[in-house]
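$ ./design --mode recover --in tokens.txt
reading tokens...
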């Protein structure tokens, strides 16, 4: 049982409150979101920090120790590109099919005008550490990071030949981790500032193309990524499950509630309602209603994911630690029958929610896995009969997936341990 002797002595009111909280979490975790993210062979074990696609077929990822990998066939093959530096590369952005930029540690800025076939090191101050790059045209772009104890936004209007810095200092230490522009005038940068004993979220807003920036102070913790939908709507994510939305151009921020207490590192939207966030322990979240609800997807990895990018509404990629590259071709969703309409599995799970024991009715010889929301397999078993007893007493209370696979089909269902 999940409850110890002290919990058994709690009042009925406290027990009811626990059930309400559990139900709320369960509803937020997954609403029939059976996920299909496929591991790609990246040909590197270095951590990957950023991914960018210029078409459904052509994309790039960058990461630790100067790693750059490229695909020209939709992720079927990834080739490691010649190293430009031994320093960590943090972010990559292409303004069009040919012109792209990479930024990283010690002021490193690289530019290509040939679709990544060759890169030029742009001269800048090596005392900077750059975290994010965003270009709104081949010539006009922005970089965020830090120099010393101050956060910085740098702007260029001549393709990186010169850069104009904006210093941001709002505490003992200020760091800007991400920048995104909706148009040539309106943009947001996100990060954090530190005062003794605490980290605080920070958003900077510009409405004049980066000439001036005004600070906004949402509720939460350190922020890692920001993404704009239009001049009114945007999202930012960060530490301790910080997932925030603005409906008024960054002036005010609404906390979004989702599945678990994890660190979210990247957010990306393909439309006004369809978006994704990724983070620690293989976390992938998806919304289809403009952030009102976020559903967890099975990533099939426990590695930290650092960046997510979609080439269109269906084809997307996430990259992370240890060279992890994941791909989906249908927005991360699979039907109960992955392999064809004629190959169905009839499954009965009872009770659900459950305490310790689950009775499973399905085909004999099926492979059964219990998976947590971050893709970690907590238990695996092959059914010896059409009725199988699963002892899940060792699992913590919460939401899990049960995945049943035969030679011809696969089904994933949500179960809740009460």
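writing sequence...
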């Amino acid at each position: 049982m999940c409850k110890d002797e002290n919990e058994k002595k709690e009042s009925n009111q406290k027990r009811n409150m626990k059930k309400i909280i559990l139900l709320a979490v369960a509803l937020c975790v997954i609403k029939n979101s059976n996920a299909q993210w496929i591991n790609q062979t990246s040909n590197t074990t270095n951590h990957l920090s950023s991914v960018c696609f210029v078409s459904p077929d052509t994309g790039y990822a960058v990461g630790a120790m100067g790693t750059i990998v490229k695909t020209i066939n939709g992720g079927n093959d990834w080739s490691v590109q010649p190293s430009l530096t031994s320093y960590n590369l943090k972010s990559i952005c292409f303004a069009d099919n040919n012109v792209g930029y990479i930024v990283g540690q010690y002021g490193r800025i690289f530019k290509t005008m040939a679709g990544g076939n060759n890169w030029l090191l742009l001269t800048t101050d090596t005392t900077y550490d750059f975290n994010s790059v965003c270009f709104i045209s081949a010539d006009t772009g922005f970089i965020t990071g830090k120099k010393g104890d101050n956060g910085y936004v740098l702007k260029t209007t001549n393709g990186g030949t010169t850069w104009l810095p904006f210093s941001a200092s709002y505490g003992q230490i200020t760091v800007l981790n991400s920048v995104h522009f909706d148009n040539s005038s309106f943009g947001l940068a996100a990060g954090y500032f530190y005062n003794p004993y605490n980290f605080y979220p920070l958003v900077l807003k510009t409405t004049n193309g980066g000439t001036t920036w005004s600070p906004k102070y949402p509720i939460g913790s350190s922020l890692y990524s920001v993404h704009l939908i239009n001049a009114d709507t945007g999202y930012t994510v960060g530490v301790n499950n910080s997932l925030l939305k603005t409906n008024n151009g960054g002036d005010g921020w609404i906390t979004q509630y989702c599945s678990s207490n994890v660190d979210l590192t990247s957010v990306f939207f393909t439309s006004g309602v369809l978006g994704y966030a990724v983070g620690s322990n293989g976390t992938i979240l998806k919304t289809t209603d403009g952030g009102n609800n976020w559903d967890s997807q099975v990533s099939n990895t426990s590695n930290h994911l650092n960046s997510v990018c979609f080439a269109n509404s269906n084809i997307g990629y996430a990259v992370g630690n240890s060279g992890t590259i994941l791909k989906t071709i249908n927005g991360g969703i699979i039907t109960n029958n992955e392999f064809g309409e004629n190959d169905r599995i009839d499954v009965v799970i009872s009770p659900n929610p459950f305490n310790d024991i689950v009775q499973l009715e399905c085909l004999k010889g099926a492979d059964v896995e219990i998976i947590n929301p971050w893709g970690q397999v907590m238990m695996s078993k092959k059914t010896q009969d059409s009725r199988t007893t699963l002892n899940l007493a060792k699992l913590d209370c919460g939401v899990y997936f049960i995945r049943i696979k035969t030679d011809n089909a696969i089904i994933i269902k949500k179960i809740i341990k009460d």
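exit 0
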